[in-house]
Amino acid sequence: MHIHILGICGTFMAGIALLARATGHRVSGCDAGVYPPMSAQLAEAGIALREGYDPKQLDDFKPDKVVIGNVMSRGRPIIEELLNREWPYTSGPGWLADHILQGRHVLAVAGTHGKTTTSSLLAWILEYAGLEPGFLIGGIPANFGVSARLGRTPFFVVEADEYDTAFFDKRSKFVHYRPRTLILNNLEFDHADIFPDLTAIQRQFHHLLRTVPSSGLIVTNGQDPRLDEVLAMGCWTPVQRFGTGEWEAHDIAPDGSAFEVVFQGNRQGRVEWTQLGMHSMHNGLAAISAACHVGVSPATAIEALRDFQGAKRRLEVRGTINEVTVYDDFAHHPTAIATTLSGLRARVGTQPIIAVLEPRSNTMKLGVFKDSLASALTGADTVVLYQAPDLGWSLAEIGAMLGSRSQVSYSLDETLAAIQAQAKPGTHVLIMSNGSFGGIHEQLLQALQTVDRHKT
């Protein structure tokens, strides 16, 4: 069967493409404004990719079925053509549920923050234990080098996103997955473009809880009262808590790079790894708990964490030039921004941090978080805020709250110049965006390299 994927370069849909290819389907797709790492991953897999959404591609590719990403909406010519011609179609989560997840032990990771890292951790623990899981993750775990694979056993790890499924299915993606093991990392208001308030998100999370069998397990953050409220709406599955509850961390290193794992008051072993921050420690505890549910011993899980290499775009070091280290991070919510900065600060001590932020998510564009954005950035010594043309509100107010430490830039060239003006040997440049940010990471590294060559 030939499937054609609309919005193929999204992290989730690119994973669908890899899984479809692995199951023997012919796969093609289209997207707009494609960028790495997903575009590179698709190219390496030999998947035909077309730029843009011209309806003519339906006749060019002649797919048997079209898989539609949630980036697509009514009114786009290709969608109208597809519907008018009654072409067979489905959603990404629907295709995954029907063709990959049936009959498998699904381990799902849900929550506002940490889904990609925790899914990567869980998949790696199972791999380390010899269980050879399948997975679909909204990023690329460095231990695997791909965002999705079929696996060789019944176990399948999926990053369970609460965003809506498609223009024709407004339920959250995760209600399609029917996990037997479910991690609930945390819960905050986000996705203001589709959810009116936190209560609406909690309702979707409760719909997810309704799909977990009584023989399964729910692993939840014991320090999150919003998740407790979801569980209080009705729960029919055993629950284990991490952070506070069954799984706890003791003797924690200041930067979160080491901690003792304790289960029901009994020491299980000590994690020593490359991850930073208290949020990473919680991700690790959650992954250990979920892995134990499928038979992995705590000792084996702890050993696996020591070899965990992280996920791309999660405090990923893109390079160090002239003693200036450049990081790429996906943070686009005030909580994620603050915790990422906190973890980096704990690691680098008094060395200067430049935080560079592109507010790009739909929720950011609506200005929902503008009152909490300044406080989230206070962990940086210098802040560069990129005012994109389509942002819809002015960052000048945030800049005023941060005072002399901040600068608002109105182009990529201006952003690069602002970073270079402040970046001295020993500086850490943390670039945060949930998009490509115009390829600013490589441009900055090249500019720093040029300066270094000129000095020599």
Describe this structure in words.
This protein is an alpha/beta fold. It has 3 domains: 2-91, 3-Layer(aba) Sandwich (Rossmann fold), CATH 3.40.50; 103-306, Mur-like, catalytic domain (UDP-N-acetylmuramoyl-L-alanine:D-glutamate ligase); 316-455, Protein-Tyrosine Phosphatase, Chain A (Alpha-Beta Complex), CATH 3.90.190.20. 36% of the residues lie in helices and 23% in strands. It has 16 helices and 23 strands. It has helices at 11-22, 38-44, 56-61, 77-84, 92-101, 115-128, 198-209, 225-232, 278-293, 298-306, 334-348, 362-365, 370-376, 396-402, 412-422, 440-455; strands at 2-6, 26-31, 48-51, 65-68, 89-91, 105-110, 134-136, 148-149, 155-159, 164-166, 169-172, 181-184, 217-221, 239-242, 247-250, 258-263, 266-272, 316-321, 324-329, 353-357, 382-386, 406-409, 428-432. A 7-stranded mixed beta sheet has the order 8-7-9-6-12-13-14, with helices on both faces. Strands 18-19-23-20-21-22 form a 6-stranded mixed beta sheet, sandwiched between helices. The chain has a 5-stranded parallel beta sheet with strand order 3-2-1-4-5. Helix 9 crosses helix 10. The chain is globular and about 55 Å long. The mean pLDDT is 91.
